[in-house]
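Materials and Methods. Structural model of Superoxide dismutase. The 249-residue sequence of Superoxide dismutase from Phialemonium thermophilum was retrieved and submitted for structure prediction as follows.
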Amino acid sequence: MAPPMFRELCLLLALPILARGQVGDLPITTSNATALLPTFSLPELPYSYDALEPSISKEIMTLHHSKHHQAYVTNLNAALSTSIDSLTRGDLVGYSSQLSAIRFNGGGHINHALFWQNLSPPSSSDSSPDAAPKLQVALEATWGSLEDFQKDFTTALLGIQGSGWGWLVREKGTGLLRILTLANQEAVVQGDTPILGVDMWEHAYYLQYLNGKAAYVQNIWKVINWTTCEARYVGETEDVFADLRSVIG
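The predicted structure was written out as tokens:
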């Protein structure tokens, strides 16, 4: 069963309530239905804005987190509120018109929350691949070496056309590792366990690297939080999203 991130964002939050036609003993109204929706908030970073320098500048981190990520959160909350308002009025067209905004901004919120957690100051022991011994064994079994994995992952990242994300995931069912890329703000919510994600939107690097995204990718390897990657690899998919839910809502 896929992690219920988007169901929580729309279906589980709205449709079961509306199907009953009431909230407790009260008939459904916009005000009491909206009151049951969560208000998502911007998670605090586990490090300061300048902690990832020189790989990622303080200026980029400040804008990326406080402006871009905040915009996804703000727009997600607005789309959820509008959708529940439409449903309580029986306006299926109005509700449907918000689904793409919920998917896009919800994905942006999920992706960034995962991304911040898999970064670490370069001076931290978390930034050493030695912090992920079991994952290293699996990477070597799949790609031959950590270096060969990094080369393939880098190639996948640089091959993204336009905006998107690159992910190392553990496949549901097989447990095998694979690299995938997703366009725009599509989120890894279909059963695979996200282990490592890299943001390839221009706002993640342009102020510092201009159009030199290859240099951005080269340097981001210096600030990967391998401790987080190890925990995601050895844990269950539900654990990753349970941790995520504790910081995004």
